[in-house]
């Protein structure tokens, strides 16, 4: 009895309200129509945006991990460093006496490479020598044996594809190697640290190491670290033939690459519980024989020196003649640097810090990575005092430091502070690089 009238009253009110809403639309049907069409169009655009967003999400899901994170990290580092570099160079242009006299020639050579400063500022000192090696004719006498030739020789075919621009080819190789290094680093860290979050921290710290901006420069750092990470990753996966093939090129990229066979052999020993004895040694030879390809890689370069220069040891002789490098005990060299002029002392303290982090973060399962990291510090120091100018660059090869930092930064607060500190340190060193104090870095 009560519900009927209420329902009827509600329906009447509804029809009355509909009539009252329709009458103004009748009086202004043109404006109302336009509003309806605008609302309809907006709804259509919103629906399309949602659909596109879902499509982009589906596409991103199809990209296998860790590529989305790795690519984002790579592009973020590239964008930030490029913007910072252009701002610093713009500000530096107004400084009287810039560049310093001893850097003026390099500055002029940078301008010859490219009129785009975001390209040219990635070339300094050794980069220019790599560029020269990538353009020297292969016929006729060859007298440039001071650098292993993998990096500049890779730029030759790529430069031809790029219309003869070997400078751009060198940068493309460095940046592609940097991207691949992040991927291999992420996959290796997943195996060693146990989860994807720790692996992400490792790749982030790899990008934030004090001189990690050199991964984007026309230098061998990114290629060497990429190949080193790849060899350790495949060693952990028991794929020793791949280890040997990649290690062959690793040894051709830098002289220290030959010695990476030692920590890789430790990975093999650990996988077989450090067993020794005649039968165990035969097993190691059967499985790990591809490690012999690492010394074969360096021997290939020595054979090239003999073929083109008549001297198996032309590399060592060129290093001694050109830069005064003589192999010696690295410990006195380090102590000499610590007690030397402020710039040398600062760089030597960086080496001490790297060694301290490696030793403090040592775990028995990661003995191979400790040995590798120590080699990446002591071998450059064995070059003698001339190494001080390039020590910060050579220390970048010690990627196990990032593994230790990733483990230490399990807590969010530690991660934030460590990330911020490393970013500031790298920013300061990058500014030094850009303001033509490059001999502080390279």
UniProtKB/TrEMBL annotation:
TM ranges: 67-92, 158-184, 205-234, 240-269, 281-304, 345-362, 367-385, 391-409, 416-436
Superkingdom in the source lineage: Bacteria
UniProt keyword terms in alphabetical order: Membrane, Transmembrane, Transmembrane helix
Signal peptide extent: none
Protein's name in the database: Glycosyltransferase RgtA/B/C/D-like domain-containing protein
